[in-house]
Amino acid sequence: MEQEGGVLKEGFLVKRGHIVHNWKVRWFVLRQNTLLYYKLEGGRKGASPKGQILLDGCNITCPCLEYENRPLLIKLRTRTSTDYFLEACSREERDAWAFEITGAIHAGQPGKVQQLHITKNSFQLPSHISLHDIIEKMHDSSYGIRPSPNMEQGSTYKKTFIGSSLVDWLISSHFAASRIEAVTLSSMLMEENFLKPIGNRSTGAIRSGDLAEQFLDDSTALYIFGHKRKNWKVRRFVLRSDPAFLHYYNPSKEENRPVGGFSLRGSLVSALEDNGVPTGVKGNVQGNLFKVITKDDVHYYIQASSKAERVEWIEAIKPLT
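^ thats the sequence. predicted structure below, dont judge the formating
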């Protein structure tokens, strides 16, 4: 544990000037409550700091997308609404600085850490977007996220992407407003098997048991696209009319956020005979089945608790399609 006033991290960052918006290399020293920066004199840091950024009440934005030609920026907004733009030399450096600065901002403020958990638990996808929509966009050859070979501890994993890249992408695609939201969203995608961890770093996080920490916003954690397992899960369904949407929730979890859902506009709903269970679906399911095919041709199989209830669901869904 760092001593009060001890150095948490130090190194070069390029800083945007306050009055004249020019960019200058400065040597930064991160302490528990301040980020000091020094001029370089003859390649060495000056004896006294050129300035300091007070971290108490500070907000950090990373990635900061305000400068298109500077993708490695971190933005700090102080309690007095002064903005600082700092540029790292690599994504790894940017993520490492953001991680340490975030830790310094929240250190000794259990309320802030609690706030992170509240954000994670209260995050809800907009009703017109489903996890399926996000995965489709991720696969899109123009706007999506391109899997590539990545190495971890000497092993190469094909068609993977790194955790922090996915977080960057979810924010730049406007699916999430902050890194916390994007991590929460990524955890939801993993919970529904749309994403899978691969390699030691990301699979190790899964074993931590805390859903909030399962997906890593990290440049060393690797993920791949998963495939929906065709097995049966107990879900609580909520039908909404405006817009027409069927959301489903995990009844074993307290938090009130759907684990998935789909738009009903342009979909087909029909009852299935008892032998109408699709091939490849595991489990011996008896009767009361109905099927919804979305306009994107995704097939959902749902089992009601009785024949009467199946009729009720189909009657309620039909007018919304």
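The radius of gyration is 24 Å.
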